Every structure is written in structure tokens, then in C-alpha cells.
Predict the 3D structure of the following.
Amino acid sequence: MVTKKNLLNLAIFGGTPSFGDPLHVGRPNIGDRQRLLERINDMLDRKWLSNNGPYVQEFEQRLADIIGVKHCVAMCNATVGLEIAIRATGLAGEVIVPSFTFIATAHALQWQEITPVFCDIDPLTHNLDPRSVEKMITPRTTGIIGVHVWGQGCDVEALTRIAERHSLGLLFDAAHAFGCSHKGRMIGGFGDAEVLSFHATKFFNTFEGGAVVTNDDALAAKMRLMKNFGFTGYDSVKYIGTNGKMSEVSAAMGLTGLESLDEFVAVNRRNYHLYRHDLLGIPGLKMLTFDESERLNYQYIVIEIDEVRTQINRDDLVAILRAENVLARRYFYPGCHRMEPYRSYFPHAGLLLPETERLVQRVLLLPTGTAVDPEEISTICGIIRLAVEHGRTISERLQSA
Ligand code: T4K
């Protein structure tokens, strides 16, 4: 690891990169390898690899217990989980979603020819702004999908009131929020259903995977059929369905990861506090802080750059970090509304999304998780501090290059 003191030592200007190996946002946390391999061996002996096997059933029960929800339906990933939850709750026509989310939230609707209507966010929390939601409702609106971005609960209470007042379905994309609470209640039990992701890049993973959780018995039963082609028996199909099943090997990874869940969160929490401490006082740089009276997974380190004060823009800072082998990410740039097919469908959507448009230019995410140690965090923060201290000079040099 190379510590930078002078801006000419920055790798973007020809210096040696601070890190020999890249540091990623989204490096998987791996639990007890031996325990995983034992489970996989048992699975191979059993010769039961998919289709609601014993690991999947155990995993679903463990998740339901942790979240305190009646039903957990494990899925092959959160995107299919969203698609199934959307279909099972009968959403159609138009559904209100944030544009500041991973593209899967919008695609899960459009895939079924439901129009995602992009709504603006609260700049402080990065979550749906309920006042904007209300303004987007039309006679074609059938539902709202809130996203608990970075694991922070949406304004669930306001969204629930709006949904009730207008008789709309209410789902939550809780892909970031496994293990998090909102106002003291675990995320997973809100709305008609909530969808979790256990993708490899999440702090807790099942390689690929997800789950839909709900307290609604009928909805759970319907989604359980829908994820298995709609089969109710060997020869009978009740609904249109798809293949949304989680495999046994994924559930084995999940069960193993659950045994290390507290450790994953503890490392993320440690990293979060180190970043907070080391980035404090850098002018124009704000780190998203969480309400620590809630349960949190701390899985994202989110920075906002106020270019006027740092004198270096977010993209130049990302380029500087990447040259040092710190693969910072610009989630969710440029916003779903600026990606296809939505950009062509709604070329002027941005006019109604001023906070989203501003935020996508300012946000960057830094590496965390068990793959990053305190010394590396200190080096990353040192690079950022150096870059901001010389913001104007660096910007000029990069522009003239
Ligand atoms: N809703 C929301 C709000 C979401 O954020 C997501 C997914 C979903 C729904 C859909 O959930 P899933 O259907 O995926 O269950 C990543 C993830 O692929 C995606 O799951 C996640 N959100 C999103 C925020 O991030 P990319 O395009 O950034 O992935 P990629 O391949 O660039 O990987 C990120 C970094 O992680 C890289 O630097 C490499 C590293 N990595 C990745 C993998 C897969 C590893 O070190 N090892 C690995 O195995 O989307």
C-alpha cells in the first residue's frame, strides 16, 4: 500500500497506484467456508438440489423469524421476486417508483408492460418523497413501490396513508435493507410485501438470491405457486407462473452466512465509523449518516460531493480513486429515467425530478465489508483529502490533459 502526500504522486498523474489489487464496492462477505462445504456435501448426498428442498425451507423459516414476518418466499433473485410480487398483487397500468434506484425496480414493472412513473426523492434520505408521490397519481395508477435505499427505511407511514387513501397497492424494494429496522420495526413487514436481495454484492449473499416477505397469507400462497410455474400438483397449474425458485446451494450459502451475520454487520459498522472519522471536516464532502437508534446493516458508504466547495467534481474524484485501484461507484447514475427504454419513452421526465437529477451528479460509494481493513480505509480517505485539498489545481490539470 502506498500513502500519497503530494498530488503529483497520484496515480492519475503517473504515480504508483496506492493499491496493488483493486478494492471493490460489493466484494462478497464469505462466512464459514468449512460449514458451507459440509452443507454442500450433505446436499450432494441427499441428491436434492432445487424445488423447495430442505435448505430452502430452513432458510425461509430463519428469515421469517429474524424479520418477524409470517411468510418468507425465497427466490432466485430480487428482480424475479419483484416481478412476482408485482403480478401477485395485481399491479397494472402505472406504478409510482423512484428513479433513484437500481434499474431492476423499473424493469420489473416494464417487463410486464406496466409503466413505471418516476417520482422525485427527499435529498436528505435519498428515498421517495411522499409529497411528490401524491402529485404523480393519475386514474391509471395502481400502486407504489418504495425503495429503502442504502437500507434506510422510506417514509413508510406517509406512503401507507397515500396508498390507503387512493386504494393503491404498496410494495417495498428492500434489496438493500435486510437486517434493518424502521421506527423500531424490522423492514420486511411493511406494505403488501417487501422484496429482499441476497446478490453476491450484498453484505449477506446466497450467490444469487432474494426473497419476498409478507404477512398476507393469500398473497404468500399465490407467490409460492407463481415462483414454481403456477403448479398446484403434478398435473395442475392455477396461475401464470415463472421459475423463481432458489436453489439448495444458494440456501446452503444463506444458512451459512446467517451464522456470521452479526460479524458482517460489526465489520461494516466499524468501517462506517472509520470513514466518518477520517472524512470529517473535508469541505464540501458529506457522508450519509444513519440513525443508529435503528438496526442497520451499514452496507453502503455513501458520499455526496458539493462540487462548488470541493472545486473538484464527483467524476474527477471517481477517476482519481479508480487510478489508485479504489473502484468507487456512482450508484445510481444517471437515474433510471435516463436509461433506455425510459429515456425514449419519457424524454422530459427529468423536469419533474430535480432532486434526483442533482443527486446523481453528487453521489459516490466507497468500498466496505470484510474485504477492506482499517488501514486501507485510512489510505482511501487520505487520497480523498489530498484530492479535495488540491481540488482546483487537479481539476485544471485534468481539463487541460
Ligand atoms: N433493487 C435494488 C434497489 C437493487 O440495488 C438491486 C440490486 C435489485 C433490486 C435487484 O437485485 P438482484 O436481482 O440482483 O438480486 C450490483 C448488483 O449486481 C445488484 O444486485 C445490486 N442491486 C447493485 C446495486 O449492484 P452492478 O452492475 O454494480 O454489479 P457489478 O458486477 O459491477 O459488481 C459490483 C462490484 O462487486 C464489482 O466491482 C465487482 C464486485 N464483485 C461482484 C460480484 C458479482 C465481486 O467482487 N464478486 C462478485 O461475485 O450491480
Notes: Residues 24-28, 77-79, 101-102, 104-105, 147, 173, 175-176, 197, 199-201, 210, 327, 331 surround T4K (CB under 6 Å).
